[in-house]
Amino acid sequence: MKVLANDGISKSGILALEKGGFEVITTKVAQEQVANFVNENNVDVVLVRSATKVRKDIIDACPGLKIIGRGGVGMDNIDVEYAKSKGIHVINTPASSSESVAELVFGHLFSGVRFLHDSNRNMPLEGDSNFDGLKKAYANGVELRGKTLGIVGIGRIGQATAKMALGLGMKVIAADSFIPKVDIKVEFFDGQSITTTIESQSLESLFKEADFITLHVPAQDGYIIGEKELAIMKDGVGIVNCARGGVIDEVALVKALDSGKVAFAGLDVFESEPKPEMAILMHTKISLTPHIGAATGEAQDRIGTELASQIISLLS
C-alpha cells in the first residue's frame, strides 16, 4: 500500500510505515494535481499538515482513498464529515504537538514582556551607535511571575500551556465551552508532581481579569477577540495567538496596539495566511512567527510515529 505524505513526514514516521509494509511517497504535489497523482499512483493514504487541503473535490475524484491523515490537531483543511460519509478514515495527532505549541506561546510572551522582537531588529542597526538609547527604550519590562494568564480553550494545548504557566508562578484562568473543569498535573524532573484544578469561567470575566491572554481554539465562524472584547480587557494586556488565523480581528488589534490598550501581541497565525497583512508584519509591538507551532523535531517525530501507528492498525 502507498502513502503520500504531501506536506512531509519525519524520518521516524517513514521508517515505522516502511516497517509496516507501506511505501511512503514524500514528493510535494501541487494542490491542483493531488487528485491526479493519487489516482495515477494508486495511493491509499494521503497525509497532510496545514498546507494541503483535502476537500470534497479530491474525495470525490479519488475513490480508492482509504485514509486521510492530518499531522497535528486542527482539521479545518479537510472535509472530515464528507470523507467519513464516503467510508474514508480520517485521523489526526491531537496530543503530539501540545508541548511544542505551548513553548512557542511562552516564546512570544517572553519576547513581548522584554521587547525581544523589537530589540533584535534594532540592536544590529543601532547597537553600536545608540546603545544607551536602546537600553532606555527597552528598560520597562515586566515579569510573568505573579501575573494572570487567561487561556481560551483548555484542551490539550491549553493544558500544556497552563502547566508551563504554573511552573513560572503565574495564576491561570480558563474559558472553555466544552470543558467545565480540568485537573492540571505539573510534573518535575525527579518524578515529583503537583496537581491543581482549573474551573472554566466566562469569556467576559477572563478578558476582564487576565494580564495576558492566549488562544487555543479551532477555526471559528467569527472573531473571538474583536473591538468589543478588546475594550473590556485590562489596559496593557498582552495577547498571543498560536492557534488559528481569523479568531482575532487584526484591524481592531492593530488599533488597540497603536492606542496602548494592548501592550504587545504574539502571532504565529494570521487572517490572510500565507500572505499576512503588512500592517501586522511591520508593527513594532507584534512578535511574529510563520505558523511554526508544531515545527520542532520532537513534535514531528511524535506526529510521524503516531500517524504510522494509526495507519498500520487500520489497514493491516
UniProtKB/TrEMBL annotation:
Ranges of residues in domain D-isomer specific 2-hydroxyacid dehydrogenase NAD-binding: 107-293
Keywords for this protein: NAD, Oxidoreductase
Alphabetical list of SUPFAM superfamilies matching this protein: Formate/glycerate dehydrogenase catalytic domain-like (SSF52283), NAD(P)-binding Rossmann-fold domains (SSF51735)
Molecular function, one GO term: oxidoreductase activity, acting on the CH-OH group of donors, NAD or NADP as acceptor
UniProt cross-references to InterPro entries, sorted A to Z: D-iso_2-hydroxyacid_DH_PdxB, D-isomer_2_OHA_DH_cat_dom, D-isomer_DH_NAD-bd, NAD(P)-bd_dom_sf
Annotated ranges, domain D-isomer specific 2-hydroxyacid dehydrogenase catalytic: 8-314
Family label: Belongs to the D-isomer specific 2-hydroxyacid dehydrogenase family.
Protein name: 3-phosphoglycerate dehydrogenase
